[in-house]
Amino acid sequence: MKILMVNKFLYYKGGAESYALKIGEELEKNGHEVQYFGMDSDKNIKKNNLNLYTSEMDFHSKSMKRLKYPFKIIYSFEAKRKIKKIIEDFKPDIIHLNNINFQLTPSIIEQAYKMKVPVIQTVHDYQMICPNHLLYNEKGICEKCIRGSKWNCTKYNCIHNSKVKSILGSLEAILYTKILMTYNKVSKFICPSYFMEQKLLENMNYKGKTLVIHNFIELRELANTIKENYVLFFGRLSEEKGLNIFIEVCKKLPEIKFKVAGIGPLEKKLQGIENIEYVGFKTGKELEDLISKAKFSVYPSIWYENCPLSILESESLGTPVITANYGGMKELVENNITGILVDNINEHNLQKTIKELYFNNELLSKMSMNCIKKRKNMISLQEYVKKILEIYNDVIKDYENENSNDRT
């Protein structure tokens, strides 16, 4: 089978990138032909035969090219033109979309549909129902655009509290959901959480097009790790991840040592706090050791996370998790068994939960053992790809039947 894997970044950067690249590699191991389309970058580790990618976009640059960005991030004629050439050359049986917003845009769905190539999309964020893609703004959780007007994004300045950016977000949403009806041209949406599926199905356009598969986890062999006396936060260092709340809680618990791993806009806020050791961005064996030695990890996101790999990674290494009792997070942690679900993430609740769990070694030991037992129920990369191939085959078959009916 020929698969065109599409993601805006073609190097390891975040969850969507890890997902797309690892699935592609596993498909190739199984004898399938995979090519990739995304944004041009010196960091890219995957390619297509024509070596065609969209131009690199640096939103922090002061170049004159930035003046074109507001138009390109809504509808990319460049991405549409280049994916057309790749489809003509590669002739994929199916296109698998991942994170396409801004650098690629849903314009590529229009081109694939025009060329009669079936498309599936793994839904990594809320792009199809929220102009901000997060169901979150600076005031907190926001669901006004799901059933209401997409102009709510502009009204409440949902994107970075900027009127201009919010107008662009509203225009993009209206273009693809109301005018072009672009997402109707996707054959199947893979939702990594039941919560994500539930939110999509609040819009009738997606009825019958969704299915849920929790993200895969690469299970490493467990070493006899001795737990150390620290609590871990790892991931993107940003507001929606609950880092501001987490930092304030750390200050109020000077008797507890915390370690933080990751990069992001709030990195500087970690400086000068005596009981926080900031270790920077970690991957591979270093990150595994950091996770497995922690008494527990804290994942205090204040937005509706989809299916965070950080929680799965933590549990798979025998480390319990404190996280929020909403979004996709509550589907991954069994309360008081593999961690603790907090109904409302705020400073008081998080401080109380961390302190109680930190000093309850008996409960922590049980939770750690439960996390290890849970490994056998986690989806491996190999199992996940088998499910993906079944979806590919079903979609291709249905698509061929639909097109043959159209011809008759």
Q: What is the N-to-C order of secondary-structure elements (H for helix, E for strand)?
A: EHEHHEHEEEHHHEHEEHEEHEHEEHHH
Proportion of residues in extended strands: 5-15%
Query: Pairing-aware structural class of the strands and helices?
Result: alpha/beta
Which strand order does the major sheet show? Answer: 2-1-3-4-7-8
Number of helices: 14
Average pLDDT level: 93
Instruction: Name the CATH homologous superfamily of the largest domain.
Output: Glycogen Phosphorylase B
Number of domains: 2
Q: Let me know the number of strands.
A: 14
Strand count, sense and closure of the main sheet? 6 strands, parallel
End-to-end Cα distance: 27 Å
Enumerate the spans where pLDDT stays under 50 for 5 or more consecutive residues: none
CATH class of the largest domain: Alpha Beta
